[in-house]
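Continuing the batch. This is chain 6 of the set; chains 1 through 5 are on the previous pages. Same settings as before, nothing changed between runs. Recording input and output for traceability.
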Amino acid sequence: MRLRLLPLALTFAVAAPLAAQQDFSKVEVKADKIAEGVYMLTGSGGNIGLSVGRSGALVVDDQYAPLTEKILAAIKAITPDPVRFVVNTHWHGDHTGGNENMGKAGAVLVAHENVRRRMSSDQFIALFNRKVEASPEIALPVVTFAEGVTFFWNGDEVRVFHVPPAHTDGDSVVQFTKADVIHMGDTFVNGTFPLVDISSGGKIDGILASADRALAAATDKTRIIPGHGPLGSKADLQAYRDMVKTVRDRVAKLKAEGKSKDAAVAAKPTADLDAKWGQGFIKGDMLVGMVFDTLP
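Output for chain 6:
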C-alpha cells in the first residue's frame, strides 16, 4: 500500500489563491484501503476518509468542488452505494469545497456548529489577507453539534468529537472505533509545522489538546489520517505533538521575558527543527509568529 505525500504548498487548508491556480483536470484522486471498510482518499486538498459497508458510504471532508466527480468515481470503484453523509472536520475550502455538489447529490452534511456559522457568513483570513465569501445554503451543514455526535454505521461506532480551538474554532476529530482509524483534520499535518488560523479562532494550545486526546484514544496499531501528508501512526502523532510543545514552550519563554513578536521571530526558536518540520507551507518564522499571537 503506497500513500502519496502531497505538497502542502499546493494543498494547505486556506491557501485558496494557490488552489485557484491549479489545473484540476490533472489531479488524480486515489483511494487506499487502510482498514476493513475504511479508506483514505488523496487528490488536492485535505485528505478524505471513507467508510463503506452495509449502511452506505460516509465521507470525512470533500476537497475542492472541481474534484467532486473524480472523488465520486473513486468511491464508486469501491462501492455502488451513494454517499449518505459528509462530515466536515472544519470550514476551510479544501475540506468543504465539495459540500455544494455533495449536498445536491443528496448527502447529509454534518459538522460542528462553528463550521456552519463561519460558512454562513463572509470570513477574513488575516494570514493570507483574503476575504472568503459565504457559502450557498446547499453547501452548509444541515446537522450540527456542540460537543460531538456518534454514527452507528457500517458495523462501526464512528465518534465525531469537537476539540478546543486548534487549527480553527470548529475542529472535529473522527474516530472509527472498530476499524481503529482516527481522522484528525488539520489539527494534525503529518511531517510539517501546523497552521494556526487565528482569524478563525485557532490556538496553539488547542493543537496540543487535540493531539493529546487522539493519543489517549490511539494504540500502536491505530492508523491516523492527517489533514495533509501521508497516513500516520501513533508514533508520528506523538512526534508532531512533541515538536509543537517544544515550539510553544520556547516562544512562551521569549514572550515571558518581554520580547516583542519581531524579537521572538528573530531569535529563531525553531532553528533546530526547520530542516525536518519546516519543508511544507508553514515555515519556522511563520509558526513562531502564530504561536506568539495565540499565547496569553
